[in-house]
Amino acid sequence: TAVLYRTRDGGRSWRRFASVPSGCQLDFVDEQHGWCIAIGAAAGSETVRLLHTVDGGASWSLVSRTGLYSSDSTPAALPFGCDKTLAFTSARIGWAATGCAGGTPYLYTSRDGGSRWHPLAAVPRPSTLPAPSAGEGVSLPAVSGSRLAVSVQIGGSPRGATALATSSSGGRIWRTRLVPGRLEYWSVDLIDVQHWRLSDGKTLLATNDAGRHWRRWTAPVPMRDSVGSTLELDFLSPNLGFAIPNGNSG
Q1: Taking the complete model, does pTM exceed 0.90, yes or no?
Q2: Staple 22 to which of 2, 106, 128, 231, CB 3.0 to 4.6 Å?
Q3: Can you spell out the DSSP letters for 86-136?
Q4: What pLDDT is recorded for position 247?
């Protein structure tokens, strides 16, 4: 197990609060409700062990488990296939996004705090692109009611491509479009369903109306890390953001 600390003064002081299972990613939506997300890799697929707390981390209970090759999984757990990213937007609503070396990536949602997971419609690839030659992945969605927005990374030679998809029906129907400009990978930060910020390491793109209008400019500072990878964007608001190296978890 690992130790869980808590601060109530913005980080100036910390109190040892409880224990948490080791190897998990913590995701809290308020002071009481949080999840311990333990993901195990297995050759392009992943197991998931999801624990939930309703008392700020003092106690944890298993709510969902995806076993190896889906054996010993709990009812309505996430599938074993593909790499996964999980996050919650409220005490009951959760999301799971995937990246797949082969096949179509999928999105799932939970409406009961992570116990049971339900698939959303597959995000369509832009019709102008062939099937990906190096895998495909979708991001966690930006969410506002029934409106969703995700980014799609599409493997290919030589540069791959990035697309953006939106839904106004909670993920039942999607509209997908490529990032404007030449085909390549972009670092995408979906601040919300309207405001998106992108970088390819040299150029910055911004839209404040879900892609109807774009602003493009050359970055005034280096936007690549020491090995040449594009910095990840992390915006707290449409104006305030950070550019972070992706290596070693930032």
Answers
A1: yes
A2: 2
A3: EEESSSS-EEEEEEESSS---EEEESSSSSS-EEPPPPPPPTTS---SS-E
A4: 67
249: pLDDT confidence band, cut at 50, 70 and 90?
low
Helix, strand or coil, per DSSP, at residue 37: strand
DSSP state string for 124-174: PPPTTS---SS-EEEPPPEEETTEEEEEEEE--SSS-EEEEEEESSTTSS-
Q: How many CB atoms lie within 10 A of CB 115?
A: 18
Q: Which tens digits make up the pLDDT trace of 10-24?
A: 999 999 988 888 888
Please state the separation of Cα 179 from the chain's center in Å: 18
Residues 6+ apart with CB under 8 A from 24: 2, 36, 37, 38, 49, 51
Report whether 179 contacts 163 (CB < 8 A).
yes
Which residues, in sequence order, are CB contacts of 74 under 8 Å at separation 6+?
62, 63, 64, 65, 115
Is the bond preceding 158 in cis, omega lying within 30 degrees of 0? yes
| Joined tokens for residue 55 | 């008392």
The position carrying tokens 């910020």 is 197
132 token code pair = 């990906």
Give φ, ψ of 80 to 5 degrees: -75, -35
Percentage with pLDDT > 70 across the chain: 98
**Which tokens is 80 given?**
């074993």
Q: Please report which helix (H) or strand (E) contains residue 241, including its range.
A: strand 241-244
Closest listed residue to residue 208, CA positions, set 199, 197, 195, 222: 195
